[in-house]
Amino acid sequence: MEVRAGAALVIIDQQKGIHHPKLGRRNNPHAEERMRALLAHWRRNGWPVIHVQHLSHSPESVFWPEQSGVEFQDAFVPRAGERLIQKRVPDAFCSTELETSLRDADIGQLVLVGVATNNSVESTARTAGNLGFETWVIEDACYTFDKADFFGELRSAETVHAMSLGNLHGEYATVISSGQLLA
């Protein structure tokens, strides 16, 4: 198995609000650099790029539509010809045209990057795998934040990230590094 030319790069929730201090400590400080390298590779090759934007229902969210946090980070603003998917829940397939647009374009392979690994990335990857898309998650081009588990024990972003990738790999997706993909 390998990532083929023409696979769609799906960039999840790279919006200004994701850098808000209230979200806490994160892992993978170089994730955006890896995402930019992948995006440049996709653009150079003319392959499909899909930008996913979260529009929250909650005014307290960093992605509330009526404030600047909902806007894309400068490096991830969609260009002409690149698809924009706006979602209201973590899963980019839920109540959006993502599946239809992929099937209409005859795209069967997806490469997922973005934030948060255990939230929007994981939920989107699970659905993609369940729908039969060949799904790849780029582990060093995703990140998440420290999070308390169900029992209240604080888990590091690194642990949360690793568990999420463990949940996905081999069942819903194949997890690799950006270096493996770009080599």
UniProtKB/TrEMBL annotation:
Entry GO MF terms: hydrolase activity
UniProt keywords, alphabetically: Hydrolase
InterPro entries, alphabetized: Isochorismatase-like_dom, Isochorismatase-like_hydrls, Isochorismatase-like_sf
Domain of life: Bacteria
Pfam families: Isochorismatase
Domain (Isochorismatase-like) ranges: 7-175
Name of the protein in its database record: Isochorismatase family protein
Naturally occurring in which organism (per UniProt): Pseudomonas spelaei
